Structures are given as structure tokens and as C-alpha cells.
Protein: FAD-binding protein
Organism: Nocardioides guangzhouensis
Amino acid sequence: MSDTTPPGWRNWSRLEKARPARVVTPTDADEVGVIVREVAERGGTLKVTGTGHSFTPIAVPEDVLLRPEGLSGVVGIDREAMTATVRAGTPLHELNAELTRAGLSLHNMGDIDRQTVSGATSTGTHGTGGVAASLAMQLSALELVTGDGSVLRASRTENADVFAVARVGLGALGVLTELTFDVEPLGVLEAHERTMPWDEALASYDEILAANHHADLYWFPHTDVVQVKTNNRLDAEPSVAEPLGRVRRFVDDELLANGAFGVVNAVGNRAPRLVPPLARLSAGLLSERRYSDVPHRVFTAPRRVVFREMEYAVPREAGMAALREARALVEKEGWRISFPVEIRYAPADDIALSTASARDSVYLAFHVNRRTDHTAYFRGVERVMREHDGRPHWGKLHTRTAADLAPAYPRWDEFQAVRDRLDPRRVFVNAHLRTILGP
Ligand SMILES: Cc1cc2nc3c(=O)[nH]c(=O)nc-3n(C[C@H](O)[C@H](O)[C@H](O)COP(=O)(O)OP(=O)(O)OC[C@H]3O[C@@H](n4cnc5c(N)ncnc54)[C@H](O)[C@@H]3O)c2cc1C
């Protein structure tokens, strides 16, 4: 284990910075246990970070920072049970690479693969559609070092009460050291991207969901254009996949989605009045494309333009109304928004503090460039989301507190009871967790 006096820490969006008193990089659960006991005995706090991709201060270390790098790598694959066990600090892209080599795959993923498996599951990171939209819902077991330094395993059959809440544990229940994911045979996903007029896309949203395994929509503010991306499982071997050629991938994903988009944002920052015409120009350039590939290469893409994001889950039935109201507000307020609004769907799940807990959900995600002040836009839209009983993504910006989050989650007390049991001395807290979960 390495134990150092730290350089500073900052998150991906550069909104949060910290100078922890000490940085530790343990290499197994026993070492984690020793550190937790030390910190608990002197009344300190310990924060595990992933890769810092949360926009909220949820990962900010205030005393001891436990870095994930010493707890990385795939532990084993069980082909009979169809599971893969990984150490908790493993980045998702490493898990994907290992699974692909083994002819296996996760069921669903979000838009990027840079996060750690533990960071991503802990905040409810999700993709869209499928039978499980979040990474946490693909877990079948976990190992956790709790507030007294002891190691606890949980699954649907072992410590089931802990498993019910700790898959989306917000980093508040202990240090995850190992996660076991359900996996499936490596298949092929066919992606189809095209644009639709706003009215048609919103009117046919239910049909789009019913007809496709995964659907991801992007509305371009200041336009009537909605980009619809659907991904469907082909009944075929990976060898039949027709991925985008290297040149097309470079042009689409690097030059247009990151390079040109970065330029559009830079111009918009200097001259906000140009945002609407630039948005119309960019939306007009979107072309239809189809390709197929192994799932993680279809789900994820690089994101190089640094942005800020708020995302809310509203009940599925309220999704399109909430989106319409958000658009009306943007137009009424005259905000100039250069990032598309992303629209995704998750089936109801059974995790206490998952944003899709016990209800089918539509996710609406709002972004701005990191040099744009997000406060008025996010606050305004947040009011709309709250009117629709929205639940904020735990890793993305919001202004909610424990007092108003508790009524949004029917199983709130169940989470708190496990928290009191596993971390009675509140070793795993920071100011943000006290705000959103209470003392
Ligand atoms: C460019 C970008 C794209 C994104 N795309 C999506 C998306 O498509 N879908 C989506 O839902 N979200 C998305 N997110 C949000 C992101 O997935 C979450 O914020 C996620 O939590 C980040 O993982 P991380 O490894 O960076 O964890 P961090 O942000 O570093 O930590 C998050 C929380 O996990 C806790 N934690 C980390 N490791 C452990 C551990 N071993 N034990 C206990 N607790 C732990 C931390 O203490 C903290 O509370 C995106 C974010 C960015 C910046």
C-alpha cells in the first residue's frame, strides 16, 4: 500500500477541488480495513474516489482520500453462473476489454466507459432501455469494508438487506472492494441514428421504446430537431458486425462530436447570440447512419468537451410533458443552450435509492459547456422536474437536500437504517453527503 502526502484532487468537470490530509492506495480489503479502523478511532473521515466523473461534490475527500488504483483488475469469470467479479476500482473500459476477450459483455452501459465500476454503480450510472438500464442493476454480489473495518459480502441470498441498498450506496455505506456483475454472451448491437421533427419524436416516443431494445434521443435547443439513436441486438455472432470504419469514426466521433462541437461551444461562449444559428447549423448537419459492433463500442463514445450536467428521472408517463415544459422555459427565458438535451429510459428497478426505484423512468439530461454559467438554466429546469416528482442523478448537479429527497424515495428509511448499522460513526461522509442524506 502506498501512503503519501497528497497533491490536490479535482473532478472531471473541474467544479470540485480538494486537498486531503492524506492519500492512501490500499491493495486489498484487509489493508482497507486497517485504514478504516485507524480513521474511525481518531474520529476522522475517509472518502474513496473513483475517477472523479461526478459533477456533484459527492466524491470530495475532506480528510483521508482512498484512491482506487490499488484495487483494480478482473478477479475471475464464472461461465456457469455467467458472472464476472472485478475489484472495485477497475475502470469500466478495462472490464469491457477483458469481457470482450472472453466472448462476454455487460447488458447495458452509459455514454462513456472511463469511470470505475464502483464509482459508476454507487451513483446509479445508467444507460437506456434493456431489461436493466443501470450498472448497479447488473450486479449480483458485492464486497464492502464497513465502518468498523470488517469485510461484508452481500448478494440476493447473503446479507440481502445490505444488497438491497448498497448497489447504489452513494459511497456512504463503506468501501466497496469487489463487485460481481451478471454477464451475457458477446453479441452484436445494430445502431441506427437519424433525425425526426420534434412533434413526431415526442408523439412516437412510446412506439420508439416499444420497437427497440435501447433508445437514446437528443433534442437540439433552438431547433425542432431530435436525433434518435436506437440500438438493437442482432441474432448474430460478433464476426458479422459492420463497425464504422476508422476514418468515419474519427470524423464523426472526434472531428464532429468533439472537435467541431468544441469549436461551436467556444464561439458560443464568446458570442452567445450565435448559439441559436450555430445550433441550427449543427443540427442540420446530422446525417443518418447505421453500423453494428460489440455492445460497449455502440453504447459509449469519447467525451472531450468538458461540460456540466444535471439529469432528472421522472416517472415514464410524465417524461414528454416534462420535456415540453423544459423547452417552453428555455424559449421563454431566452437562454442560449449549445448542448443537446438527452432523453433516456429505464425500467423500474428494486434498489432503494436508485433513481428508477420502483418506477419506469424517463431521464432528461441538461448540459452546458464548462465556461457557461449553468445556474439559471439548471435551477429553472430543476423546478420543472420537481413538479413532475423528479429524482436527481446522484452524480450530477442538483440543489436537493435530505429533507426533500426523503419523500421522493419510499425506501429512504431502509437505506438510513443500513447506513446507521454499517457506518454509525460516519466515517464515510463529506459535507455533500450530510446535505443529501442528513447527518
Ligand atoms: C463525461 C461524462 C459522461 C457521463 N455519462 C453518464 C451516463 O451516460 N449515464 C450516467 O448515469 N452517468 C453518467 N455520468 C456520471 C458518472 O457516471 C457518475 O458520476 C459516476 O459516479 C462517476 O464514476 P467515478 O468512478 O468517476 O466515481 P466518482 O465520481 O469519483 O465517485 C462517485 C461516488 O462513488 C463513491 N465510490 C467510488 N468508489 C467507491 C468504492 N470503492 N467504495 C465506495 N464508494 C465508492 C465515491 O465515494 C462517490 O461517492 C457521466 C459523467 C461524465 C463526466
Summary: The longest strand covers residues 188-197. Residues 12, 47-54, 58-59, 68, 88, 110-112, 115-116, 118-120, 122-123, 125-126, 170-171, 175-176, 303, 393, 395 surround flavin-adenine dinucleotide (CB under 6 Å). The radius of gyration is 21 Å. The first helix runs from residue 29 to 41.
